[in-house]
Design a protein that fits this description.
By secondary structure, the chain is an alpha+beta fold. It is built from 20 helices and eleven strands. Among the domains are: about 140 residues, Beta Polymerase, domain 2; about 55 residues, no CATH class; about 55 residues, Serum Albumin, Chain A, Domain 1. The chain is elongated, with a radius of gyration of 28 Å. The structure holds cytidine-5'-triphosphate (CTP). Homodimer.
Length: about 400
């Protein structure tokens, strides 16, 4: 019996078959189904040409028609359906100049990266596996379809995909594949860094991260990856410290603190074109970790962190210091705080300004607010408007004396 995600796509395949075409589930979904792990996106391959698909289905989006891909919408679901194809010449190690549609699924599977990704499955669960994918799943090994050199010169990103799958599936990279990555690794510089970023994020989240880190080392691929190539001890340190999958921001922060060298976050951000959001979150965690280093776990730390970041922070401290913090300890402290954000204060910047109508606005207001915030947080000042105003007046008087 096929599982839920496949059932949702049943109708699309059925329509194609009823109209005399072939259609199969292909790629990662078949791999994950055979491994009995949760299945992600469902990709379908068919011998119907794109224009034939467009005429068969009512709701379609021609997302990549020149490459044979049509998005077919069915109920609340959408599926990428791609005409069997082989790829033309690759000039730049990253994308084919052209594709050629073919009528045979085996040919379509032959242009795929790894044997474990080169299987097809029909609605009855029968598997087409011309390159030994099932055997390699059992052996827990990553083999290319055909010669590694051919697959890697077609798309250099595949070398990092090998490492990502090693981590995600806890598999070993076959020797010939490993050797080819050592030889062709530098070609990855032709690949857009955004694509590299996606694979690295997935790699660090792999359940077999140890294996992934080992593969990044044994393939020497790290020598061609931004930041990793500049800091040779980075990978060794990660290997020694990392036990579980980690999000990429923790990778950056952990290495920044572990290496304690001139190596700033901007380096990572620029090299991997990371988002501003990720940069902001990473800086936040980095500052919180500094606070923790200086003063340990206290009110200021949990207030600064905010509850959203507790999980992340616990992981980070474990990676850097191998210390297990109990997240519930952070939660209890947080719940006892007199305020949870600055907006919980009984006064605003505006209130303080209006206490001194003759004073010019300026940074002093922010400084006052931040001092009030600290005192309230440490329970040295009650969060009450009259009390706070009294304290502010005292400060002003001291300043004018
Ligand atoms: N550089 C690439 C990328 C993809 N593929 C093929 O396209 C399929 C779909 O690719 P993708 O969605 O990127 O990866 P999945 O294998 O589906 O894995 P996941 O969903 O876990 O990312 C792969 O299984 C593989 O057959 C390939 O041959 N070469």
């Amino acid at each position: 019996m096929l599982g839920e995600p496949f059932k949702k796509a049943r109708n699309v395949i059925q329509v194609l078959e009823d109209n005399g075409y072939e259609a199969y589930f292909v790629g990662g979904s078949v791999r994950d189904y055979l491994l009995d792990v949760p299945v992600g996106d469902i990709d379908i391959a068919t011998n119907a040409k794109p224009d034939e698909m467009l005429s068969l289905f009512e709701r379609t989006v021609p997302v990549g028609i020149e490459h044979g891909t049509v998005l077919i919408l069915d109920g609340d679901h959408e599926f990428e359906v791609t005409t069997y194809r082989v790829e033309g010449e690759y000039d730049d190690f990253r994308r084919p100049d052209s594709v050629e549609f073919v009528r045979d699924i085996t040919l379509d599977l032959s242009r795929r990266d790894f044997t474990i990704n080169a299987m097809a499955m029909n609605l009855d669960g029968d598997i087409i596996d011309p390159y030994g994918g099932q055997e390699h799943l059992l052996q827990k090994e990553i083999h290319t379809v055909g010669q590694p050199k051919d697959r890697f010169t077609e798309d250099a990103l595949r070398m990092l995909r090998a490492v990502r799958f090693a981590s995600q599936l806890n598999f070993e990279i076959a020797h010939d594949v490993n050797d080819a990555i050592i030889e062709y690794g530098p070609l990855i510089n032709h690949v857009a860094v955004e694509r590299i970023q996606v694979e690295l994020f997935k790699m660090f989240k792999g359940v077999g991260l140890k294996q992934g880190l080992h593969s990044l080392n044994s393939t020497q691929l790290y020598k061609s990856l931004p930041v990793f190539k500049e800091e040779h001890s980075l990978l060794t340190r990660l290997n020694e410290t990392v036990k579980n999958p980690i999000p990429f921001e923790n990778v950056m922060i952990a290495t920044l603190t572990l290496l304690s060298q001139e190596h700033d976050l901007n380096n990572w951000v620029k090299a991997y074109k990371l988002s501003n959001k990720l940069k902001k979150e990473s800086l936040h965690l980095l500052n919180c970790y500094d606070e923790y280093r200086r003063n340990g776990i206290n009110e200021t730390l949990v207030y600064q962190l905010t509850a959203d970041y507790f999980g992340h922070f616990v992981e980070l401290v474990f990676i850097i210091d191998q210390v297990s913090i109990d997240a519930s300890e952070l939660t209890t402290l947080f719940e006892q705080l007199p305020i949870r954000t600055r907006s919980d204060l009984a006064v605003t910047g505006h209130d303080i300004m209006s206490m001194f109508p003759n004073e010019k606005r300026g940074p002093w207001i922010g400084e006052y607010l931040s001092n009030i915030e600290q005192l309230v947080l440490q329970s040295k000042l009650i969060n009450n408007r009259t009390e706070i105003e009294r304290q502010v007046k005292r400060w002003k008087e001291q300043e004018s004396n």
